[in-house]
Amino acid sequence: MKKVLLLLAVVTTLNVSAQNVVGYWYGTANVAGMSSTNNYMIELIVTQKQSAVQAIMNCYFKNTFRSIKLNGNYNNIKRELTLLDIPMPYFASTDKVQVDCQMEFTASHRVAKAGSNLTGRFTGLGDYKYTCPDIVFDLKLNNEAGNQDSILLALKNFKETYQLWTPSATDTIVQATVIQRKIENPVIKREFAERENVIQKVIEVDSDSITIDLYDNGEVDGDSVSVFFNGELLGANLMLSTRSIRMNIKLDTTREFNELSMFANNLGAIPPNTALMLVSDGKTRYEVRLSSNLEKTGAVRIRRKKAASLSR
Question: Which candidate, 274, 284, 281, places its Cα nearest to that of 60?
């Protein structure tokens, strides 16, 4: 009997989840039929009233960021989400020349016990469908990204319908440069040890020295973080913004891997505490989206490529 009730509870939960797409969704998108070098990072903040949907889409592509307020609808019978009139950056845009494609977002909503996903594509509208290839995506629901109140607050406080921001060398100079040295803060170190360290991405680099740039992920909302490298405090109480916090880090080559952790000092106005981390080894730049709250610390694991793989 208990097993039957448990099964019914699970089925009921999945059915309720399938009827709406409210929440924070994140993931990557790529131009259909092309390599992952044409990679977009997408974050959606979605609220829903019956079939009507409102959303904020944060999109990172190459060196650009934009945040756009959108409208659309959700068909809970087909489990299909549609967002309308989206200016997406053209995949062949350069740092100096930005070209937009007017597109529509269509996604299938998949709900499972392991998690929920939005999978689908951006397709060109009107004449854009002949010049702008589809962009396919797979977005995952962040179950720890706050509640309905924080989502409504994000939509209420949205200030601009269109923003365009390009990180540049001057961004890293104006904000702050963190020197790699151990610092002492017993309170932060104790709280860091008490929280779960969650590896959110693993990357392999070609160099023993890397450059890290940290930005607020989306709208600047007062996020404050502390950065740990291999368990040692590297920077404390750093305020994230559209200007980078830069760290030049020398890897410990005696370790199998190095870990960089982003500890949340607060949750900002829009939980959780999220950041865009750009990791450069001099040849390749990696984009990492980190999310932390007051129970878990987001981290990236960094491996040095082996000599055999470097010689290929």
Answer: 274
147 vs 144, higher pLDDT? 144
CA distance 302 to 257: 6
| Global pTM value | 0.49
Domain ranges of the chain: 2-156, 169-310
Name the average pLDDT for the chain.
78
134-159 mean pLDDT: 69
pLDDT at 119 (0 to 100): 96
Give the whole-angstrom CA distance, residue 271 versus residue 44: 14
Which homologous superfamily is 2-156 in?
Quinohemoprotein amine dehydrogenase alpha subunit, domain 2 (2.40.128.120)
Report DSSP letters for 93-133, one per residue. Answer: --SS---EEEEEEEEEEEEETTEEEEEEEEEE-TTHHHHS-
Measuring CA to CA, which residue among 270, 249, 253, 271 is closest to residue 261? 249
pLDDT of the residue at 7 = 43
Residue 141 is encoded by which pair of tokens? 């629901």
- According to DSSP, residue 165 is labeled B
